[in-house]
Design a protein that fits this description.
Order of helices and strands: HHHHEEEEEEEEEEEEEH
CATH class of the largest domain: Mainly Beta
Strand order of the largest sheet: 1-2-5-8-11
Number of domains: 2
Structural class: alpha/beta
Number of strands: 13
CATH architecture of the largest domain: 3 Solenoid
Strand content: 15-25%
Radius of gyration: 18 Å
CATH superfamily of the largest domain: Hexapeptide repeat proteins
Shape: globular
Helix content: 25-40%
Largest sheet: 5 strands, parallel
Oligomer: single chain
C-alpha cells in the first residue's frame, strides 16, 4: 500500500522495470493501454492513501477511477486499488479478476484468465510470484515467496516458499533450488 510520494515513485519505477522500460513516454501511453491502466491505478492509490479528502481531490480521484474502470472493462481487468505491491507485470490483456480483500506482494507476474477470490477468507500471496494463465486462487490461502503457479491450476490450500505448483487441485510439482531463487551459499561465486 502506497503511503508516501517516495513509495509512489518507487512503485512506478518498479512497475516500469518489469516491463523493461526506463521511463514512461507519450509513445508508451499511446501504445500500451495495460501500462496506462496500471499507472493510473497507482496514481489513484497514492491520491486516496496520501493526499487527504478535499472536494477537488475527491472529484479528481472519481474522474481517474471512472476512466480506469472504463479502460479496465475494455482490457478485461477487475483489479482494485491497494492489492498489489511494487513490480506488478500484466503481460497481456484478458480477463483478470482480483478481490479487493486479497494481498499480493512485490514482483508479481499475472497472466490472463486469472481469478483471485474470497471464500472463507481472502488469499495472501507473497513476493516474486508467477501466476500462469487461467489459474484460480480462492479462500484464505497463504502462498509464500518465490512460487510459480501453473496454467489452469486451482489453488485452495496454502503452500510454502520456493515451490512450483500445478493441477486441479494444485499440488507441489517441484521445489526450486537456491540457484533458481537467486540465493547462493557463502563463497559460491568466488573464483
Amino acid at each position: 500500500m502506497i503511503q508516501s510520494k517516495e513509495e509512489y515513485l518507487h512503485y512506478i519505477a518498479e512497475d516500469l522495470r518489469h516491463y523493461q522500460l526506463k521511463k514512461y513516454t507519450l509513445s508508451t501511453y499511446i501504445k500500451n493501454p495495460i501500462l496506462r491502466f496500471q499507472r493510473r491505478l497507482r496514481k489513484i492509490e497514492y491520491l486516496r492513501n496520501c493526499k487527504g479528502s478535499s472536494f477537488i481531490l475527491k472529484v479528481y480521484c472519481g474522474v481517474l477511477n471512472g476512466l480506469n474502470i472504463r479502460l479496465g472493462i475494455r482490457l478485461g481487468f477487475s483489479i482494485p486499488i491497494n492489492t498489489f505491491g511494487p513490480g506488478l507485470c500484466l503481460p497481456h490483456y484478458g480477463t483478470i479478476v482480483i478481490t479487493s480483500k486479497a494481498s499480493i506482494g512485490k514482483n508479481c507476474r499475472i497472466h490472463p484468465g486469472v481469478s483471485v477470490g474470497t471464500y472463507h477468507g481472502a488469499p495472501l500471496i507473497g513476493d516474486n510470484v508467477y501466476i500462469g494463465p487461467g489459474a484460480k486462487i480462492f479462500g484464505g490461502v497463504k502462498l509464500g515467496d518465490n512460487i510459480s503457479i501453473g496454467a489452469n491450476s486451482v489453488v485452495t490450500k496454502s503452500f510454502e516458499n520456493g515451490v512450483s505448483i500445478a493441477g486441479v487441485p494444485a499440488k507441489i510439482i517441484s521445489h526450486k533450488s537456491t540457484l533458481e531463487l537467486g540465493m547462493f551459499p557463502e563463497g559460491f561465486l568466488e573464483v
